[in-house]
């Protein structure tokens, strides 16, 4: 008799266990974990980037400034002569962890726009840079946002979008190799490289 009771309890226990495991439902309306790839790419993440990668204009990164502005053909300025000195004094500087253009820097972008208007056969590459703090991936994304913010302002000032290339170097090209705020302030920047077609 005791054995029958034990077997019955065992069978009931197994049935209940199987029923409970078979009735599990998939979670609904879950919240994505930080860093997950659901939805748009956030400020701190560009999924798939590896250390040393460069973001170039037109790679389709969503949620960035200037994403609605058309791009030129990839490599359309490849082989053009590069001049890093002409617009060196117009380097645009940024606050820490920001791609917002400070009002004190807008006159520099206006000067670049005026230069391009006066030199219709030239183009420009905006190079985004960051200080050394933060990961490689984050700084490449921030450098790209900075370059695209300046590109967007140049377009607003009347420059044809296809005359403006962008690239992010992240923290790989510091203007000052120091490890203090004085150096970091100089490294959070966009530089302008004038591009001239061969033969002009």
Task: Kindly describe this structure.
Strands 1, 2, 3, 4 and 5 form a 5-stranded mixed β-sheet that branches. The protein is elongated. The chain has a domain at 81-196: 2-Layer Sandwich (60s Ribosomal Protein L30, Chain: A). The longest helix is centred in the N-terminal third of the chain and has 21 residues, at 2-22. The protein is built from 4 helices and 5 strands, in the order αββαβαβαβ. The model is unreliable at 23-64 (pLDDT under 50). It is an alpha+beta fold and 200 residues long.
Report a brief summary of the structure.
The chain is an alpha+beta fold. The chain has helices at residues 2-22, 106-118, 136-156, 181-187, and strands spanning 81-83, 92-93, 122-129, 164-170, 189-196.
Identify the overall geometry.
Answer: elongated
Annotation field: number of helices: 4
Helix content percent band: 25-40%
The major β-sheet equals: 5 strands, mixed
Low-confidence stretches: 23-64
Name given to the CATH homologous superfamily of the domain at 81-196: OmpA-like domain
Q: Can you tell me the CATH topology of the domain at 81-196?
A: 60s Ribosomal Protein L30, Chain: A
Mean pLDDT: 77
Architecture (CATH level 2) name of the domain at 81-196: 2-Layer Sandwich
Structural class: alpha+beta
Rg over alpha carbons: 27 Å
Q: How many angstroms does the end-to-end distance come to? A: 104 Å
Q: Determine and state the CATH class of the domain at 81-196.
A: Alpha Beta
The percent range for strand residues is 5-15%
* DSSP strand count: 5
Helix and strand pattern: HEEHEHEHE
